[in-house]
Amino acid sequence: MIQALIFDCDGTLVDSMFAHYSAWREALVSQDIKLDEQHFYRHSGTPSSRVIPMFAAEQGKEIDFQRALVDKEQHFLESIDLLKRIPQVVKIAESHRGKLKMAVASGGTRNLVHRQLRQIEVMDWFETIVTCEDTEHHKPDPHVFLEAASRLQVKPEHCRVYEDGEPGIEAARRAGMECIDIRKM
Q1: How far apart are CA 55 and CA 18, in angstroms?
Q2: Exposure string (b/e) for 55-91, b if CB count within 10 Å is 16 or more?
Q3: Residue of 93, 123, 91, 97 whose CA lies nearest to 110
């Protein structure tokens, strides 16, 4: 019996993946690192602190990740007003609001996740929001979802996760949670 819903943010509640890709692409230009769009999307849900240095290493480049992160967040925030809801997923959250416990569990940074949820006007719908700063291990590790379930005080087997990326789907599976791949909705 499902007692809680846990939503990923980027690409699940918020149509933001192209904005993230574009912001990273711009931020990495100054460090002569190229970013392939499809390769970037395949790692959706994995924190940038792991993915971006991996991309740099694949190209034989050293990266000043902190500088790139500051640049990326600036580029992203400049376009945040363009972000929109993913209607079919937000509709699910809206229909269960006040009926089931709900959380957001994201590999994104707290600042960007909160800004996005405020942009699409759903910030107050969730009892808790878990971000990459709240967990040591990241998707596909199940910790982000297990932390959300713990905060909601719901056993993992009573949680349903909504996700759009392979690492997140694998994390939900490892957590013992039902998972809906929103790409198939």
Answers
A1: 17
A2: bbeeeeeebeeeebbebbbebbeeebeebebbeebbe
A3: 123
**Cα separations in angstroms, 116 against 99, 105, 112, 133, 159:** 23, 13, 6, 16, 23
Q: Positive or negative, the Cα torsion across 185, 126, 6, 144?
A: positive
Interatomic CA distance for residues 134 and 106, integer angstroms: 10
Residue with tokens 């949820």: 117
pTM: 0.88
For the chain of 185 residues, list the mean pLDDT of each consecutive stretch of 10: 97 94 94 94 83 95 94 93 96 98 95 96 98 93 98 98 95 98 96
